């Protein structure tokens, strides 16, 4: 015999050992490279690729966030940057969920990641990131977690961004319409 159970997506109700994730909708998100100006382009657009955003990521203001990228290989690297991440968007090739808590502590405005489990095999594929709780060792986004915008690049795009960061300043505009 089967039974249908209604499960609220409220971020607080628990069934078994799982807190039900908070409902999330993201109709639009775009990440643009602004500087260097001669390389200006759209890096990610959720309307063209739904994997361009971290699932459950937070919104930006309507006009977006224009900010410099700062590179961090890990949460430890990000902690070492300290105030260097404040008011900037963190770029990493690591799984962005591992850096979210530290990015929040350091005052970062968002995270851009080129993480890919099979980066060498599929350099032009975006990896689906569906964990965005504040603690890096938990999965679902719950009511008390903090919204932080997060977008994803392909591994190949990540290598291009890293080359630009090696040469100097890199600025992006991140615009995420999420609720």
Explained architecture:
- The protein is an alpha/beta fold and 179 residues long.
- Helices cover 17% and strands 23% of the residues.
- The protein contains three helices and nine strands.
- The protein has helices at 75-81, 97-106, 155-167, and strands at residues 14-15, 18-19, 28-35, 41-45, 65-71, 89-92, 110-113, 150-152, 171-177.
- Helix 1 runs parallel beside helix 2 (97-106).
- The mean pLDDT is 93.
- C-alpha Rg, in Å? 17 Å
**Helix residue percentage:** 10-25%
Our measurement of the CA-to-CA distance between the termini, rounded to an integer number of angstroms, reads 37 Å
> Could you describe the largest sheet, including whether it forms a barrel?
7 strands, mixed
Strand line-up across the major sheet = 4-3-9-5-6-7-8
List the secondary-structure elements in sequence, H or E: EEEEEHEHEEHE
Annotation, overall tally of beta strands = 9
Separate helix tally: 3
Task: Fill in the keyword field for this structure.
single chain, 179 residues, alpha/beta, 3 helices, 9 strands, globular
């Amino acid at each position: 015999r089967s039974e249908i159970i209604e499960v609220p997506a409220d971020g607080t109700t628990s069934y078994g050992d799982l807190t039900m994730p908070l409902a999330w909708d993201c109709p639009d998100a775009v990440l643009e490279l602004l500087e260097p100006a001669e390389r200006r382009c759209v890096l990610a657009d959720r309307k063209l690729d739904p994997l361009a955003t971290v699932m459950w990521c937070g919104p930006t203001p309507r006009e977006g966030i224009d900010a410099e990228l700062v590179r961090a290989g890990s949460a430890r690297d990000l902690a070492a940057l300290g105030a260097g991440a404040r008011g900037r968007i963190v770029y990493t090739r690591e799984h962005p969920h591992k850096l979210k808590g530290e990015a929040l502590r350091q005052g970062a405005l968002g995270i851009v990641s080129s993480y890919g489990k099979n980066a060498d095999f599929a350099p032009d594929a975006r990896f689906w990131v569906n964990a965005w709780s504040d603690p890096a060792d938990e999965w679902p986004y719950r009511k008390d977690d903090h919204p932080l915008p997060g977008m994803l690049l392909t591994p190949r795009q990540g290598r291009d961004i890293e080359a630009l960061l090696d040469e100097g300043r890199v600025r992006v505009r991140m615009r995420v319409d999420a609720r």
